[in-house]
Design brief:
Layout (H helix, E strand, L loop, with lengths): L1 H31 L7 H15 L3 H16 L8 H15 L4 H21 L8 E5 L4 E5 L18 E5 L1
Antiparallel strand pairs: 1-2, 1-3
Helix pairs in contact: 2-3, 3-4, 4-5
């Protein structure tokens, strides 16, 4: 009789473990499958900043970095962790306060690294997000299309780079 009771208790424990695992999986999938409408303005302003750097326009780059800061500040604190938020704010503020294209491009490399890390944890768009890489700069950026338009060198090396990953 004690063996049967032991078997039944073990089965109950296994069912509890499976139930907890199922619940945890469901919540983590719901978290990643979140609605991207909260974060889409952030990604859109990032793309505008990237395009301004591609065009080698430091004034527009600064304005778009400011727009990025506003978009980031409008996203609730639960969606983007404080550490990520602070890193993105620091980078975007540095770009917005500079009129030096070289400085903006340097900081954009860090901003892009931080954005890619965010894109791996938070759904930024329903459309594909491409991570592209410039071997000359040894830096990445995000794009909404596969065609390479290098923000680090503008027209001097417009198509230098490759797609590394699609999210």
């Amino acid at each position: 009789m004690p063996i049967i009771i032991s078997i039944i208790l073990n089965q109950i424990k296994m069912k509890r473990i499976l139930l907890v695992a199922l619940i945890a999986t469901t919540f983590s999938q719901q978290n990643f499958a979140q609605d991207s409408t909260k974060t889409q303005p952030l990604l859109t302003s990032y793309y505008k900043l990237k395009d301004a750097l591609v065009s080698s326009n430091p004034t527009t780059s600064a304005a778009n970095a400011e727009e990025f800061v506003k978009a980031l500040n409008e996203i609730d604190k639960e969606t983007i962790k404080e550490e990520s938020r602070n890193a993105l704010l620091s980078d975007a503020n540095a770009i917005s306060h500079s009129k030096d294209l070289k400085v903006q491009r340097e900081v954009f490399a860090t901003l892009s690294t931080n954005m890619f890390a965010l894109a791996k944890t938070v759904k930024l768009s329903d459309e594909p997000v491409y991570q592209q890489y410039c071997p000359m700069k040894k830096a990445s950026w995000l794009s909404n299309y596969k065609a390479i338009k290098n923000p680090y060198y503008g027209s001097a090396m417009l198509t230098c780079g490759s797609v590394k990953e699609a999210l």
